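Section handout, structural biology tutorial.
Before the tutorial, make sure you can parse a SMILES string by hand: atoms, branches in parentheses, ring closures as digits. In the record below the ligand is zinc ion, and the chain has 330 residues. In the tutorial you will relate the predicted structure tokens back to the input. Do not try to memorize them.
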Amino acid sequence: MKAAILKGIGDIHIEHREIPQPAENEVRLKVLMAGICGSDSSIYHGKLIAPLPVIPGHEAVGIVEALGAAVSSLRVGQRVTIHPNYFCSDCSMCNKGLTNICRNKIRLGVDINGVFADYVVVPADALYPLPDSLSNEVAVFAEPLAVAAHAVKLANLKNEDRVLVFGAGVIGQLTLQMARLHSQDITACDLVQSRLELAKRMGARNTISDQSELDACESAFDVIFETSGAPPALDMGIKLAAPGGKIVLLGLPGQSHPVPTVQIVRKELNILGSMIYTDEIEQCIDILDQGRIQTRPLVSGVISLDQLSTNLANFNAPQRMKTLVAINSL
Ligand SMILES: [Zn+2]
Ligand SMILES: [Zn+2]
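Predicted structure of the complex:
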């Protein structure tokens, strides 16, 4: 099979590999469509440490091609998407339902070979069948949408909440749309004008692009979602949050940044970390199938596996949204 092998920082090449065989409880998928995620770029650029060599990629739609001996829950030919963070179901976090922060988590495309290949093996219980009505191009968003859904769930949004979304990249646009299912009053903040125009199309009522506009919004928001990962963003969020407000952090900053702790106490702010998702992927498949979230405007390109290297090298282009990788056809 053809596979994209990452061997070192900035070093990814297409090579031929043996087709992997599923173990007892695994399934082999023929990968149809994959999505490139920020974490793929982070591994490629050496900001997220993975044991190399590895085949990256974790967002995918595939067809069940072969079943391990003990698998009875799926059938060959079924189209599925993947929950790519395998949890142990047995540790103290899993026992509390916090499977997203399982102590023994295995990340597809980081710790083990992922989906940027013709075939991938995946545990059967990490797969979700897809309805025929949902196209590959839309279904591949179920995993990133689950990241947004988890953050919005943690925020427990009320109809009257004034919401700010920091960062209008893919996760920001999806978070904005998930929040929009609960509140009409959404403001998007980003430095890139084209992303804010997109945010308006996705349902943002207001947009903010510069510091003076931000300064004018002191204590104006009940709920703030931080998706940018920019180190000073929490600092700004604390200023912009209304007393009693919530700040949900889903962008992973490259480094920590000091924050005004006095303001957190005085305003009695709730600051929450949101890490990927627990069981939201299944619900997100339904939401996508119902057409309640727009994904097509978020696709900035569809490439082939051979173009992956160039694409990852240029990952931080400001106009970029989600790039899809078309790997096999049916
Ligand atoms: Zn992802
Ligand atoms: Zn666990």
